[in-house]
Design a protein that fits this description.
The complex is a heterodimer of chains A (65) and B (304). By secondary structure, chain A is α+β, with helices and mostly antiparallel strands. Chain A is 22% helix and 12% strand. Chain A has a domain of 36 residues. Chain A has a two-stranded antiparallel ribbon. Chain A is flat and about 30 Å long. Chain B has 304 residues and is α/β, with parallel strands linked by helices. Chain B has one domain: Aldolase class I (TIM Barrel). In chain B, 34% of the residues lie in helices and 16% in strands. Chain B contains nine helices and ten strands. Chain B starts with a strand and ends with a strand. Classes of the chains: A alpha+beta (65), B alpha/beta (304). The interface between A and B is large, with 40 and 44 residues. Strand 2 of chain A pairs parallel with strand 1 of chain B, so a sheet runs across the interface.
Amino acid sequence: MKQDTDRPSLPREGSLTSELLILPDGKILVHNLTQPFAELLKELNPDCEQINSRLPPPASRLTKP
Amino acid sequence: MIQVASNERSADIGPHRGEIFAKRGLKSALRSMLARERAAAARAALSDCRLCAHACGVNRLGGEAGLCHAGAEARVFSAQAEVSDELELIPTFAVALSGCDLRCDFCITGGPSWNPRLGESLRLDRLAEQAKAALARGARTVMILGGEPTVHLPTALEIVAALPEDAKLVWKTNAHGSAQARELIDGMFDVWLADYKFGNDDCAQRLAKVPDYVRVVRENLLWANGHSELIVRHLLMPGHVDCCWRPVAEWLAANLPAVKVNLRSGFWPAWFAGRHPELRRTTSQLETAQARQIAADLRLNLIG
């Protein structure tokens, strides 16, 4: 497969990138999890300990890329 | 269920937040200076490149390329603060360099890992400023990874030289580096975060096209354990509990019984995983339970 070497794959400065894989059984796998995305996932499932453990107290959260 | 998972960057979650920075290879004040010196030595070594265990011996400064296909200049395909990694390391500002010496068919970053020309040219000043900003906002570590950062050791060391002296640095590696690379990197990083992917050479050859894998990775892990903090990762692959995880776990229990081990169950059938029938799915709950039982029976120091 030929790769496009002209197109930068690094996100624009100031942007962040996470990737999701949603399985048929409802399980969600996350790659390159950023804090803003973790906060979004927490809203989807507030009781998910795997996500909650990755979020620091609200006052100290990283919010800028 | 939401699971933080990926082939090489994910972590299952655990309660541990250990003191990982107790062992510092060098006093911080010396690090930048030594990193600059070693970056120059590492760049010179590209003329007869033997930074990884493939030991191709090509002249990357003269335009030749070995098995990793990497040239003399590194490119970066991701640089951002993330919370996917081990709890004691996050948030981390993760800098991913394109190119790798392995060819894992299931690589979740297969494009830029297999093609070192992807990504952007590395602007050291801008990258250092991004890292400093992330640290100021609460990032606990800066992680250099790939691909495989060993193939771009000169650039990795230049990044180290540009970072604050007191930044906690993590070397995320496939543990397939050479003795020469280890010598150049000694004392530069606070933590080695090292993959031990395959439990036998047959699986390593079939899935990642790498010969003599087990000997090399064990040599690197034993060295790293004596020179920095070491965390070993194993990505649990579907259908590979007994052939890969079990021998990895048994070796760790016998040789590095206290080392922190992150058993990762979030296999993501990415890239060319479909070439291998057993890798066309995620790991089952039964496989994950079996793997954790093996770890428990061997009393491994599992972390998340």
